[in-house]
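Narrative of accomplishments. A recurring question from our advisory board has been how the design workflow behaves on a single, concrete structure rather than in aggregate. To address it, we present the structure tokens for one chain from the evaluation set, followed by the sequence designed for it. No filtering or post-editing was applied between the two.
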């Protein structure tokens, strides 16, 4: 499987903070954007084994 884009945190919490508190909502939104990473689509790990590596090919063969 190919890595997917993962944004940590909760969208619902972000919306709630924007509605109730402007500054914390902005800080939370900026943190979520800055913490964005490519990860495993199944478990969310930030360091998946590349499919092109020998270990990745052996895992695909299973």
């Amino acid at each position: 499987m190919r890595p997917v884009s993962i944004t940590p945190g909760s969208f619902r919490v972000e919306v709630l903070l924007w509605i109730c508190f402007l500054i914390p909502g902005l800080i939370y939104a900026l943190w979520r954007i800055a913490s964005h990473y490519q990860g495993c689509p199944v478990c969310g790990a930030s360091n998946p084994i590349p499919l092109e590596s020998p270990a990745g090919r052996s895992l695909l063969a299973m």
